[in-house]
Description:
It contains nine helices and no strands. It is mostly helical and 197 residues long.
Amino acid sequence: MLAPGRxxxxxxxxxxELYEAVLDLLREVGYDALTMDAVAARTRSSKATxxxxxxxKADLVVKAIRHGKPGNIEDIDTGSLRGDLHALMAAEDDCVxxxxxxxxxxxxxxxxxxxxxxEAFRNQLVDxxxxxxxxxxxxxxxxxxxxxxxxxxxFLVHMMVGGFATRAxxxxxxxxxxxxxxxxxxxxxxxxxxxxx
Length: 197
């Protein structure tokens, strides 16, 4: 068992550098071909350090993805659901959105064959994001913007992910802030009974 303070030997700057290298490798070779050896070589780290710090590839990859995400959705509170969702769309520029979209498609495919990746992804990304969306929705309900019995409430995350994912699939274009913001106004908010003006 590791001593409690053992994991803190990597500085936040070094950790950020490692995560960026992991994401670069992930974009270059995909999840299945990414190895801890390759990460160690790219980051001039020892494999032992990587395993000691992260335990394995799935945990390292998911933490790298999480590290690259801008803030937490539950921290966004503009005073309206429309404002909150627009602020969420504005958190990344189009170039970052495009890079992340391609990355997430690759990881989504890899999750089908890698239960450890699927579990890490759910525990560290999906569940916290769902909790964040629930907090944003609860504030909208508390403000009287959304009826608590609105049937679309349970599908908010599905709608958001659907707009993001199908832009490339159906239109062969990356999602952009303009597209996602329009999608929120045309699809998500009307489904929740929220005015868009």
